[in-house]
Each structure stands twice: as structure tokens, then as C-alpha cells.
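residues and backbone:
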Amino acid sequence: MIVPRHVLGGKGFTAPSDKLMIASVGIGGKGKGDIANFYKSGKAEIAYLCDVDQRSAASSVNKFPKAKFYKDWRELFDKEHKHIDAVSVSTPDHNHCIIAYHAMQLGKHVYVQKPLTHDIYEARMLTKAAKEYKVVTQMGNQGASNDGTRQLAEWYDAGIIGDVHTVYTWTNRPVWPQGVAWPASPAQVPKELDWDLWLGTAPQKDYVDKLVPFMVQGL
């Protein structure tokens, strides 16, 4: 009652009350990597997990057995928003904006994977919401947020490299299979997948076999 717990816990100890309570929506593929990095920071507790596909969710669910699992992010927000500090969004990109926006409305900090939105209107809407609800937000554009990029910006701002007149860029993408053979007839929706929730705000379409594993992972 007198000595702070971090003193008893030793150097590097972070009290549970000082950790961010994270809810992750979309926990397969990129989402799995994101929440693993949050956890490794030692400053976050993976409290809630959400995914429409039990197959892609299995690995994260097994890794964080104490986290409560939801299939529908709307139900998660409705029931648990009082216990959440921040939300990680790594679903297929057509749902990024709507999930992030609702999280901000609840006053939650948000980390959203790229692409942030589908159009300029949605981007402006999220920018306005972040200011209105006074939350911290970031898009998961890791290549533009590392130390090397910051250092180059500092060199440019300081005039060290002079006037920049030409910029060369290179990418090794895409690094995953491209193209999907479109079937003549609809395939059966796997029992582990809620196809309607996967579609979210997108127009209704028939399920396509072998398409979802790539898109669920944020690829």
C-alpha cells in the first residue's frame, strides 16, 4: 500500500493499469503480426479479438487465450467499449474506414492498416473525426514511419542534400499470387466464415473459393 508495485516488480515492469487495453478487428495475416508487435512492446494488453473467419483467427486466439473473442465488431464495440483504450483494424480494406470511424466515435485511439480509405471523402471524414473526438490515430504504413525515413526528412529540411529535383523509387511488390480464376457458379461458403460480415459495406457478391484467404489476411 506504500511502495509502488513497479518498484517491487523490478526494472522494466509495467503495471497492468498502465497498459493499453487493445481490441483487434481482423486478426489473421497482417492483423496477427500487428497485435503480436503490440504485445511485444510490453505496453499493451490484447484484451479482445474479432474476426469473421475462424480459420484465420485460430492462431491469434490460441496465442492470446485470455482475450475475449467476437465475430462481429459491432457487437464487440457495443458490449466492451468501456473496457477498451485502443482499436487495431486489419480487416479487408473495404471495411477499414467504417470500423475506424465508429471506434473514434467511442473515443478510442485507432491503428488502421493501409489503405486507410477508398476515397478522399472517407479520408477527410476520418481526419475530422480524429480531431473531433481527440484520439490518437495512425495508418499502418510502416515503410514511411521508420527511423531511416525520418532521418532523410531531417536531412532534407536542414538543406544537407540540397535541392531535390528527381526521386527514384523501387518496390518488390507484389510478393503474393496475383489473379483469381473466376468460377462460372458460386462456391459453397465455408462453415467457419461469415460471408455477410466479411462483405460488410461492400455490395453483395457470391463467395469465390480461394479468394478470401488472401483478402482476409490483408493482402
Summary: The radius of gyration is 20 Å. The CA atoms of residues 89 and 112 lie 5 Å apart.
